[in-house]
Amino acid sequence: MKIVLVTGASKSVGYEVVKALLQSDESYHVFLGSRSLERGQQAVLTLRNECADSLGPRDKGCALKECPNCFNTVEAIQVDIASDLSIEKAFETVKASVGRIDVLINNASVIKDLDYVRGKASLRESFTSSYDVNVAGTHVMTWTFMPLLLQSYDPRLIFVTGLDTFEESAREDFPLRPLERGWPKKVELETVGYRCTKTALNMLMLDYHHKLQVDGVKVWCVGPGFLATDVGEGANHPSIGGRLLKSVVEGKRDGDTGRFIVKDGMATTTNCILHYR
């Protein structure tokens, strides 16, 4: 059985990758990481019902940790990547429970741009708080859990990127309308800080890829695309991202380690940084 930890998994893409793994023919125990333990536990209950309904009577009770006949299982764990103490407590919990992880999926992130738009934070605060969680928090989470990942016979490390590349932003169908002349601009969906942090994860991934090659750790950035999340209402369903991440976990993209991959290939805009120096 493979042990997977997914951060920010109580909803959206994180939730969907947990669901996809629970419905897999392969064997998993998934730690569903959530900033709120209560929301994480509620997500586990919902997953139990959804997985049981979709898999049929034979697998009723799927995803219920206490069920001895479950094929795959899930367990909520409280982890707030903005807090070093929370990360350390989660580490100790997993270490005492199973002693290793096989896959770490760094999915948790926040969007602070709207705090500035709504007058709740300064422009600088909206940027620095986003980097503190999405980049520094992800780095600390990865660094802290690395001893458990290195206990795996097939360690995998995944950074979930987002609306982050110049190529995406330049597309004609990118979901932002042309702006009028003048300053400041009236932007309906301000996500520049969030997108910058997701781009920073590309370099963080490359650094871990470089450092961990000798340890046999497979590392990727994965871009699920513009999905129906907190950023993109009305876009494609987040289950698309869940299935993409599941395919990476299950070895479908092993030939693309150290790269930023998307559903139909690789994101070409990161080619300029694919060769680490």
UniProtKB/TrEMBL annotation:
Name of the protein: Uncharacterized protein
MF annotations from Gene Ontology: oxidoreductase activity
InterPro entries: Fungal_SecMetab_SDRs (IPR051468), NAD(P)-bd_dom_sf (IPR036291), SDR_fam (IPR002347)
Listed GO biological process terms: secondary metabolic process
SUPFAM superfamilies cross-referenced by the UniProt entry: NAD(P)-binding Rossmann-fold domains
GO cellular component: cytoplasm
Family: Belongs to the short-chain dehydrogenases/reductases (SDR) family.
